[in-house]
Amino acid sequence: MLGLLSGVAGLVGSLGQALAAGTLIAGAATILCIGYWNRPDLVTRPDATSPVAGIATLGLGFLAGIGDPALAIVGATLVTLILALKEEVHGFVGKLDEEDVKALARFAVIAGAVLPFLPSGDYGPYGAWDPRKLWLVVVLVTGFSFLGYVANRAFGARHGTIATAVIGGLYSSTAVTQSLAQRLGSGEGGGAEPAGIALASAVMYLRVTVLVGLLATRLLVPFIMIIAPALVIGAAAGLWLFRKAPRSEGPAPPGNPIALLPAFGFVLFVALAAVAGAWAQGRFGQEGLAVLLLIIGTMDVDVAIVTAGGLPHEAIGELFAATALAGTILANMFVKLGITIVYGRSKGATAAIALGASMGALAASIGVALMMLW
């Protein structure tokens, strides 16, 4: 009835009778308010779902009445879905704490309060800076972090070490490796930590591949050819260790990854790398650019990916750039292998072997790529 009434109001308004249409909508909204105000059960359990749904129905019916039925149908479908998931939404909201709200607010600032207002164009030295594209990189990278954080809050504590490793690997496989290796070395591990270390690195391979596809698309095919053997071996080793390990409850992944100051630091690093890439493009051949990517990637693989994606096609070949990026990942794997050996000591031997097998596959792929280049 509310939808029909508001649809009639929209039709009346489209015929030039705006006052009559407004009176109909205002009257229906008043009836809703009176009915909501007089419900005695709301004294002990406040719930505004029904009146809000009623007002949404008024708005959607009015949209259909003034000649926009497609948008009204879409809106009605979404409202129906939200109402059908009411209990699930209430349960999810009930699990949120102060840190969750802070994480959501930080990501909302990064993705929604900054990006739409940035200009697009060539700015800065060598025209290397496009403010909107630079910040879009921050949104993508922190988006992975936020996804991992949300997944951990929803599933991590219940599913234990493996869920911790897989989820944490989305944003910090190195931090996960340190956490799990330290548990192994201290004797507090439940047995699944070696599998978690191997799987976190496998997830890192997958995450970097997705970033290359998004930020340096032309490098995706050669990069997959180089990284695929390491990904397969790393995942297989992790699953094999998991099958041998007893079930255990693991630690939560590293804390809230959505921090504004690191995000600003990241975009500054990306901007400097873009200028360095634009400068090197005119002074060195592709060998020099490959070395530049390797140096940048040793400090941050994500920045190296962004830099490679921003270089012109003629500046460096796809296979050459993909090989340089793979080299940065191999360097990062050496760091994680060292962490596993130092913190996990003898109990981290199986995890170290799994990492070593993955690294061997990656090194072999890089070697084949270099032979193809030279």
Break the fold down into its secondary structure elements and pairings.
Layout: H1 2-14, H2 18-37, H3 49-65, H4 69-84, H5 86-95, H6 98-114, H7 131-168, H8 173-186, H9 193-215, H10 220-244, H11 260-283, H12 286-299, H13 301-310, H14 318-344, H15 349-373
Helix pairs in contact: 1-2, 1-3, 2-3, 3-4, 6-7, 7-8, 7-9, 7-11, 8-9, 8-14, 9-10, 9-13, 9-15, 10-14, 10-15, 11-12, 11-13, 12-13, 12-14, 13-14, 14-15
Classify the secondary structure makeup into a structural class: mainly alpha
Query: What do the pLDDT scores average to?
Result: 77
Q: Could you give a short account of the major beta sheet? A: none
Morphology: extended
Beta-strand portion reads: under 5%
Count of distinct strands: 0
Number of helices: 15
Unreliable residue runs: none
Structural domains: how many: 2
- What separation lies between the terminal Cα atoms? 75 Å
Describe the structure.
- This protein is mainly alpha-helical and 374 residues long.
- It is built from 15 helices and no strands.
- It has helices at residues 2-14, 18-37, 49-65, 69-84, 86-95, 98-114, 131-168, 173-186, 193-215, 220-244, 260-283, 286-299, 301-310, 318-344, 349-373.
- The longest helix is centred in the middle third of the chain and has 38 residues, at 131-168.
- The chain starts with a helix and ends with a helix.
